[in-house]
């Protein structure tokens, strides 16, 4: 099986003379970010985020990367010039990140239950959305940029605001709807490419698909035997992929709601699924491995051990055809070129 080809690796930690990398302890208030270009071994140091990477986001244009950390730091990184643009800060861990379709806004979901919307041009905090839940776990903009969806979680094992999806109007931050149905923490949210549907994954072992216009549940999808950790629509909107802590990916036909191919990476819980084309999917897992799949055949096309620890985020840079992979406590973000 072919491997991904590494292009750039971002290491969040301390580079010491005579050693490749020595991680900073988690109590360190600010880590150093080192950019290592394999062809030149050039190193650049700047103030970065916590050494524990929790979330990634990339603009649709593929020009800007956001990296979220355990300590509430968000680093904005210019992918073209390979330098930091600015640092943002919020209380508590960053759980998820998403850029608006035009790249002018960045949403960050926080462990404090709030979702924040930042203006990318100057880093100004534009909105602070208080859900009332224990934690905001996931976030996604609608394709037209008018709506924001946040996945929520709490400690009560009942359906309700604690384990729901909240829809917000982006212009002024007004709440639009609370989508209730899940009976455990919502772990992921994703809009369909045309914006008509919203999918949510949950620790209740289900994926729920919602009609955005009516704000009603359209389908409940069940095949997983453990918590569903992530969900994504294909670029053409015809297929939905769900990744689970049972270690599998289930592909769904959106129109019928019927299960299709079942992908089995086979090495522990999955944390991320990301489409890189109409029939290609990239998965990341707790074992630190990233795999690329043909969704039509179910055949794995490439595999790489991208992290020492768990993969916490996978993003797709379509401009450079790179897969961006964020890790956990080893604090590194690596870029892998598709073969």
TrEMBL record:
Q: Is Signal there in the keyword field? A: yes
Q: Where is the signal peptide?
A: 1-22
Organism lineage reads as: Bacteria, Thermotogati, Deinococcota, Deinococci, Deinococcales
Q: Which domain of life is it from?
A: Bacteria
Query: Record keywords: GTP-binding included?
Result: no
Q: Which UniProt keywords apply?
A: Repeat, Signal, WD repeat
In terms of PANTHER family, this protein maps to: F-BOX AND WD REPEAT DOMAIN CONTAINING 7, WD40 REPEAT PROTEIN
- SUPFAM superfamilies on file: WD40 repeat-like (SSF50978)
WD repeat residues: 46-87, 87-128, 179-220, 221-257, 304-339
The cross-references to InterPro entries, in alphabetical order and at most eight, read: WD40/YVTN_repeat-like_dom_sf, WD40_PAC1, WD40_repeat_CS, WD40_repeat_dom_sf, WD40_rpt
**Pfam (any one):** WD40
What is this protein's name? WD40 repeat domain-containing protein
